[in-house]
Design a protein that fits this description.
The protein is α+β, with helices and mostly antiparallel strands and 878 residues long. The chain is built from 16 helices and 45 strands. The strands form 10 sheets. Strands 20, 21, 22, 23, 24, 25, 26, 27 and 28 form a 9-stranded mixed sheet that branches. Strands 33-34-35-36-38-37 form a 6-stranded mixed sheet. Helix 6 crosses helix 9 and helix 9 crosses helix 12. The protein is elongated.
């Protein structure tokens, strides 16, 4: 498998313009910080956390200060102010610092309402820090009034209509506007309305009850100076029934879907079939009847909320009066704070929430459990609230714990480009192996493969430094049949590795001491860490070691790749002529002048060598254990790469004296604590942030993460997220979560668990289910919820935690566009259409106080049940 770029690029993750909020003290190769008066830091001075109406100019300007490395103010520096996509405008997109080092601009808010919803990011070219200003946006002055519901009803003269009259006030941008007085007036029919004046709630709605007179009735709702005012409602009132059929009472209160209820009155038929009972327009089944009493079974209402609904009885041509009565669904969601409930039957994707005065907050995930990356499922989440009640705005996001560091990570454009280049090359090699190697080798008998390997091994069982050995480097064509003959010189024979160097490598390359040091590192740490976790490699060429071939061919044929291994080397040359018939790793070499490829210094290559070899050595173990020793089908690339990233993690722990299960935060993840050390972990998290939708400091990819996927790379994966690291971030976090959750109870601990995964006869999802003993749907639901819940919800269920890493602290240390941000709504009526790709989840956060009865239904866009690959989970956040 191919490997990533040199460390000079990778260290940019912590300290290059692209991912940081407000960095203090970024160093260790992260940027150019020169003596004063060179700008080195940008800090917030004032103007953060303001409140204003949509589209309004904030009362205070936003101000930052630019200082040098010594803390002195820097005058004459250009500061860039960039509002978020929906965050309004600034009076000056660029401002120059004054003698105090300060620069400012005025900020006009955007038009969308929300707490801390608007942002402006202040950056300075060449400074590896940036400042984010946030502001809360309230609705502007009321501008319009529109009808919501209640018109065109038919009722009994002198009786209240079954449904209230409801209007909504909005500002000029369409946002619901609270605290607007609405005056109600009967204009024809002689009825009455109560109250005469009502005030809109946080959802912009106001309501009133209309008692109609006989015949045609009209009423109006008016708001002073509002477009659309007055709103006119119509209704028809009739004489009360002749008394033949009268409905006087309904029990119990409330009646419940699917349960029995009793209607009391007069004029009913003793034959149940002669009585027609309609509740909210749906027929109920009459199970028993007398002249004064009907027993019914309350019908189902297709995911309607708890509410008041009209009930009416009809016998022959006679209809009763209409009685409004409380109707509840069959059951309500009952889940404790920090707990999860999973719905797996698409026919039952309905979340019923009882009315509540307390503030509550829920995370809803709509997830595809398909493992076919091209699968994209259209879906719609529809919330319905009881029409007569109002709901508050969404709650502010759960308070974030204070970050363990004041530094914030951001991947640079250069880093993303080079990592994508490396990942694309690796994905291509994996595809070619499946197309060109497995068809040739998969049907061969193991004994014939092993004997053929020993006959064609490139590396002899015994070698000495200075020996010249011919290897076959995979060529640019078919990786099984195309190769380049390269004469290599044995430089070092270590305990576990034979180090070969191409004598034609460019000038300025490794010294003998460099190779000896890498050999010592491999013997003393990398080999021990990887084999202790994943098991021993095969020894197909009987030399007791793996070969590390340092050749310019990697630079020439695979730009951006640092190192790679391949399955073709584990089969005889009779099967794949390009094979070296043994365990071999091909590594990039220094090329300071760019003689054969991109310029890369000796220091850069040495800085990344340990990580690269740990990653690729894990693949050697995987291939040998699975393909050669156990004759098993290939694991999908996301499993291979997820485990190889774990190989990096456990090797990094061995180097740094760390261990799993310690809930490490951003300082460790992004190497803030010791920038001079190897950056072991940040790349895996970068892959996760790209899956979340990170594009740049000001931009998220639309429809992420739900339309993205981590199951395959390009071109198989058509998702919209920035490509290249799909297989490295989320799969690693998934396997780390599985290790944390199930390793302790597995024979041999999490090491035994991963060795079992390598040797599992099953592949992909089925392999994870086999080694954990849990259905893959359950695993995926718990893991996907963990990505948002971990360390965010105190006391959350253990299955929703990642004990090894503090994901909330990691999010505190990255820019907003790199975070997992659910779609946010209040407990009100709304409908969101979206698509979910295989393996991915659409996240929604629904919250508020003084909640009316609310039903949330997840169906297809045409209101059909979703396919069986879909599931829904709910976690109560507060």
């Amino acid at each position: 498998m191919t490997r990533r770029t040199p460390r000079a690029t990778r260290l940019a993750f912590a300290c290059v313009p692209g991912l940081i909020i407000s960095v203090v003290g970024c160093g260790g190769g992260g940027g150019d910080i020169g003596p004063a008066p060179t700008p080195a830091s940008v800090r917030l001075v004032s103007g953060n956390g303001q409140n204003g109406e949509a589209g309004s100019l904030l009362s205070q300007p936003i101000v930052v200060r630019v200082t040098s490395a010594s803390g002195a103010p820097v005058e004459g520096t250009t500061v860039n102010f960039a509002p978020g996509a929906t965050s309004g405008t600034v009076s000056a997109a660029q401002a120059t610092t004054n003698a105090d080092g300060n620069a400012s601009t005025s900020w006009t808010l955007g038009t969308e309402v929300g707490a801390n919803s608007d942002t402006v990011i202040a950056t300075v070219s060449g400074v590896n820090e940036w400042v984010t200003f946030t502001a809360s946006v309230a609705a502007a002055a009321a501008a319009s009034l529109e009808p919501v519901s209640g018109s065109n009803q038919t009722g009994t003269s002198g009786q209240p209509l079954a449904q209230p009259l409801v209007v909504m006030a909005r500002d000029r941008f369409g946002n619901p506007k609270d605290r607007v007085d609405v005056t109600w007036l009967v204009t024809a029919g002689g009825g009455s309305i109560s109250p005469a004046v009502s005030t809109t709630g946080a959802d912009g709605r106001a309501s009133a009850v209309w008692t109609v007179g006989d015949g045609a009735n009209t009423a109006q709702a008016a708001g002073s100076g509002l477009t659309g005012s007055p709103v006119t409602f119509t209704a028809t009132g009739g004489e009360p029934p002749s008394g033949v059929v009268t409905l006087t009472s309904i029990t119990p209160a409330p009646i419940v879907e699917g349960q029995s209820a009793t209607l009391t009155g007069t004029g009913f038929s003793g034959n149940p079939a002669d009585n027609e009972v309609r509740i909210d327009g749906v027929d109920a089944t009459v199970t028993a009847a007398t002249a004064t009493s009907l027993t019914i079974q309350v019908p189902a209402f297709n995911c309607q909320p708890a509410r008041r609904a009209p009930v009416q009885v009809r016998v022959g041509n006679e209809s009763s009066n209409v009685v409004s009565h409380d109707v509840n669904p069959g059951s309500f969601l009952s889940v404790g704070v920090g707990q999860q409930q999973v719905l797996q039957d698409p026919q039952q994707f309905c979340i019923q929430l009882a009315p509540s005065a307390a503030p509550e907050d829920y995370l809803i995930g709509v997830q595809s459990t398909s493992d076919v990356v091209s699968s994209l499922t259209p879906a719609r989440l529809t919330a319905r609230s009881a029409a007569a009640q109002t709901a508050a705005l969404p709650l502010a996001e759960l308070p974030r714990a204070r970050a363990t560091t004041q530094q914030h990570a951001r991947p640079s454009d250069i880093q993303q480009r080079t990592l994508k280049q490396r990942a694309a090359a690796e994905a291509r090699l994996r595809v070619l192996e499946r197309q060109q190697v497995y068809p040739r080798a998969g049907g061969a008998h193991r004994s014939s493969l092993l004997s053929g390997l020993q006959r064609s091994a490139a590396i002899p069982p015994v070698s000495e430094p200075g020996d010249v050995i011919a290897i076959r480097y995979p060529g640019a064509g078919n990786i099984c049949t195309s190769y380049i003959q390269v004469q290599m010189v044995v430089r070092v024979i270590g305990q576990h590795g034979i180090w070969l160097e191409d004598p034609e490598n460019p000038a300025g390359g490794f010294t003998q001491a460099d190779i000896q040091r890498m050999s010592d590192e491999f013997d003393s740490r990398i080999h021990t860490a990887v084999t202790g976790y994943f098991g021993l490699p095969t020894d197909l060429d009987a030399n007791g070691r793996i070969a590390i071939a340092l050749t310019k061919r990697v630079n020439e044929l695979h730009p951006g790749v640092v190192g790679h291994v391949g399955l073709a080397d584990l089969v005889p040359q009779s099967v794949c002529p390009s094979s070296d018939a043994g365990e071999i790793y091909y590594g990039i070499v220094p090329d300071p002048a760019g003689e054969v490829g991109d310029p890369v210094s000796r220091e850069q290559v040495l800085a990344i060598a340990t990580q690269t070899i740990a990653h690729e050595f894990t693949h050697i173990v995987q291939f040998g254990q699975r393909f050669i020793l156990n004759d098993l089908p290939p694991q999908p690339s996301w499993v291979l790469e997820g485990q190889a990233m774990l190989g990096e993690e456990v090797t990094g722990h061995a180097y740094e004296g760390r261990s799993p299960g310690q809930n490490y935060g951003g300082a460790i993840a992004f190497n803030f604590d010791d920038p001079s050390s190897i950056d072991w972990y940040s790349q895996a998290f970068l892959g996760l942030f790209l899956y979340y939708g990170f594009k740049d400091p000001n931009t998220r990819v639309a429809d992420a993460p739900e339309e993205c996927s981590w199951l395959a790379g390009k071109p198989e994966n058509p998702g919209p997220c920035v490509s290249g690291l799909e297989l490295y971030g989320a799969p690693w976090v998934l396997l780390r979560w599985i290790s944390d959750q199930f390793g302790a109870n597995h024979a041999g601990g999490e090491k035994g668990l991963h060795q079992a995964l390598i040797r599992s006869p099953a592949t992909g999802y089925a392999a994870l289910a086999a080694i954990t003993g849990h259905p893959i749907k359950t695993l995926l639901a718990q893991w996907a919820a963990t990505l948002y819940v971990d360390d965010r919800v105190p006391g959350s269920a253990p299955a929703l935690q990642l004990p090894s890493w503090n994901l909330l602290d990691l999010e505190n240390n990255v820019v907003e566009t790199a975070r997992l941000v659910p779609h946010s709504h209040s407990f009100s009526s709304f409908s969101d259409a979206f698509n979910v790709r295989a393996g991915s989840t659409a996240y929604f956060r629904v919250s508020g106080a003084s909640r009316p009865g609310t039903a949330i239904q997840i169906r297809g866009n045409s209101d059909q049940p979703l396919p069986g690959i879909m599931q829904v989970f709910v976690v109560r956040l507060q």
